[in-house]
Design goal:
single chain; 99 residues; mainly alpha; Recoverin, domain 1; 5 helices; 70% helix; globular; binds calcium ion
Length: 99
Amino acid sequence: MAETLKAMLNDQKLVTTLSDKFFSDADTDGSGLIELRELHSLLHGFTYNAGLSDLKEEDIIRLIDSVDQNGDRKLNKIEFRNFFNNFIEAIITMMEQSR
Ligand SMILES: [Ca+2]
């Protein structure tokens, strides 16, 4: 699965499409912004399917802060695309380390 994810990262158009889909799914209240709580449940689905343990809240906040351009600790669609990219890379690293 790590290889599949790596191949996916090379196709930025696909990453953007997937990112926008996950954004809509995660934005359960339709606010147009992803909050920490919404991100938490989204990421749980990911790590669970990948057989990894949950990310710690501080790790999620660190990922948010690295892409949060206006500092509101919520992610708009553009910020989320960067977040999604970084998150996939983080998952690949975690999978390779857990081998
Ligand atoms: Ca923001």
